[in-house]
Amino acid sequence: MQKYNTVLDIFGRLATWQDDSQANLHGWFEREAIIFMGDFCGRYLRLQANWDHAQPSESAAQVTLYDHPGGWPGSGPAWWHNKHTIDIVRAALEGGVPWVRVNLPAQGNDVNIT
Known about the structure:
Helix content is 31%, strand content 7%.
Protein backbone atom coordinates (compact mmCIF):
# COMPACT_ATOMS: atom_id res chain seq x y z
CA MET A 1 0.00 0.00 0.00
CA GLN A 2 3.01 2.30 0.33
CA LYS A 3 3.10 3.03 -3.40
CA TYR A 4 -0.58 4.03 -3.35
CA ASN A 5 0.08 6.39 -0.46
CA THR A 6 2.98 7.85 -2.45
CA VAL A 7 0.63 8.45 -5.40
CA LEU A 8 -1.82 10.17 -3.06
CA ASP A 9 0.97 12.34 -1.63
CA ILE A 10 2.23 13.37 -5.07
CA PHE A 11 -1.02 13.78 -7.00
CA GLY A 12 -3.51 14.41 -4.22
CA ARG A 13 -5.73 11.61 -5.59
CA LEU A 14 -6.42 8.03 -4.73
CA ALA A 15 -6.04 5.33 -7.38
CA THR A 16 -9.22 4.80 -9.40
CA TRP A 17 -9.81 1.39 -7.83
CA GLN A 18 -9.80 3.10 -4.43
CA ASP A 19 -12.01 6.02 -5.48
CA ASP A 20 -14.18 5.57 -8.56
CA SER A 21 -16.00 8.90 -8.21
CA GLN A 22 -16.47 10.90 -11.42
CA ALA A 23 -14.20 13.65 -10.14
CA ASN A 24 -11.35 11.22 -9.43
CA LEU A 25 -11.82 9.34 -12.72
CA HIS A 26 -11.73 12.64 -14.63
CA GLY A 27 -8.65 13.78 -12.75
CA TRP A 28 -6.75 10.66 -13.77
CA PHE A 29 -8.14 10.54 -17.32
CA GLU A 30 -6.71 13.92 -18.19
CA ARG A 31 -3.27 12.65 -17.14
CA GLU A 32 -3.29 9.47 -19.24
CA ALA A 33 -0.39 9.53 -21.69
CA ILE A 34 -2.27 7.28 -24.09
CA ILE A 35 -4.77 10.03 -24.97
CA PHE A 36 -1.92 12.32 -26.09
CA MET A 37 0.39 9.74 -27.66
CA GLY A 38 -1.04 9.98 -31.17
CA ASP A 39 -0.12 13.68 -31.32
CA PHE A 40 3.51 13.10 -30.33
CA CYS A 41 5.95 14.24 -33.04
CA GLY A 42 9.24 12.76 -31.84
CA ARG A 43 10.76 9.31 -31.57
CA TYR A 44 9.19 7.06 -28.94
CA LEU A 45 11.49 4.44 -27.44
CA ARG A 46 9.76 2.58 -24.64
CA LEU A 47 12.02 0.68 -22.29
CA GLN A 48 9.85 -1.99 -20.71
CA ALA A 49 10.68 -4.52 -18.01
CA ASN A 50 9.22 -8.04 -17.89
CA TRP A 51 6.31 -6.71 -15.86
CA ASP A 52 4.59 -3.43 -16.58
CA HIS A 53 5.55 -1.08 -13.73
CA ALA A 54 2.61 1.20 -14.55
CA GLN A 55 0.28 -1.51 -13.35
CA PRO A 56 -0.07 -2.93 -9.83
CA SER A 57 2.75 -5.49 -9.47
CA GLU A 58 5.97 -4.26 -7.91
CA SER A 59 8.10 -7.33 -8.60
CA ALA A 60 8.14 -10.39 -10.82
CA ALA A 61 7.09 -12.47 -7.82
CA GLN A 62 3.83 -10.49 -7.59
CA VAL A 63 2.85 -10.88 -11.25
CA THR A 64 0.66 -13.93 -10.64
CA LEU A 65 -1.20 -12.03 -7.92
CA TYR A 66 -2.30 -9.45 -10.49
CA ASP A 67 -2.66 -11.54 -13.66
CA HIS A 68 -6.40 -11.34 -14.37
CA PRO A 69 -6.98 -10.90 -18.14
CA GLY A 70 -10.75 -10.73 -17.64
CA GLY A 71 -10.49 -7.99 -15.02
CA TRP A 72 -9.83 -7.89 -11.31
CA PRO A 73 -12.23 -10.11 -9.32
CA GLY A 74 -14.72 -7.84 -7.56
CA SER A 75 -13.67 -4.85 -9.74
CA GLY A 76 -10.58 -2.74 -9.14
CA PRO A 77 -7.42 -2.72 -11.26
CA ALA A 78 -6.90 -5.11 -14.16
CA TRP A 79 -3.36 -6.00 -15.14
CA TRP A 80 -1.77 -8.45 -17.49
CA HIS A 81 1.64 -8.87 -19.03
CA ASN A 82 2.64 -5.83 -21.12
CA LYS A 83 -0.90 -4.77 -22.01
CA HIS A 84 -0.19 -1.14 -21.09
CA THR A 85 2.84 -1.20 -23.37
CA ILE A 86 0.91 -2.69 -26.29
CA ASP A 87 -1.89 -0.15 -25.91
CA ILE A 88 0.39 2.89 -25.93
CA VAL A 89 2.55 1.61 -28.81
CA ARG A 90 -0.60 0.95 -30.84
CA ALA A 91 -1.86 4.48 -30.06
CA ALA A 92 1.46 5.95 -31.17
CA LEU A 93 1.48 4.05 -34.46
CA GLU A 94 -2.18 4.75 -35.21
CA GLY A 95 -1.64 8.44 -34.44
CA GLY A 96 1.27 8.68 -36.87
CA VAL A 97 4.25 8.90 -34.51
CA PRO A 98 7.13 8.57 -37.01
CA TRP A 99 9.40 6.18 -35.05
CA VAL A 100 8.29 3.77 -32.31
CA ARG A 101 10.11 0.85 -30.70
CA VAL A 102 9.89 -1.17 -27.50
CA ASN A 103 13.29 -1.87 -25.94
CA LEU A 104 16.47 -2.16 -28.01
CA PRO A 105 17.54 -4.05 -31.14
CA ALA A 106 19.19 -6.68 -28.92
CA GLN A 107 15.70 -7.82 -27.85
CA GLY A 108 14.76 -8.34 -31.51
CA ASN A 109 12.15 -5.60 -31.63
CA ASP A 110 11.84 -3.77 -34.93
CA VAL A 111 10.85 -0.13 -35.35
CA ASN A 112 7.14 0.67 -35.89
CA ILE A 113 5.86 -2.80 -34.99
CA THR A 114 3.13 -3.50 -32.43
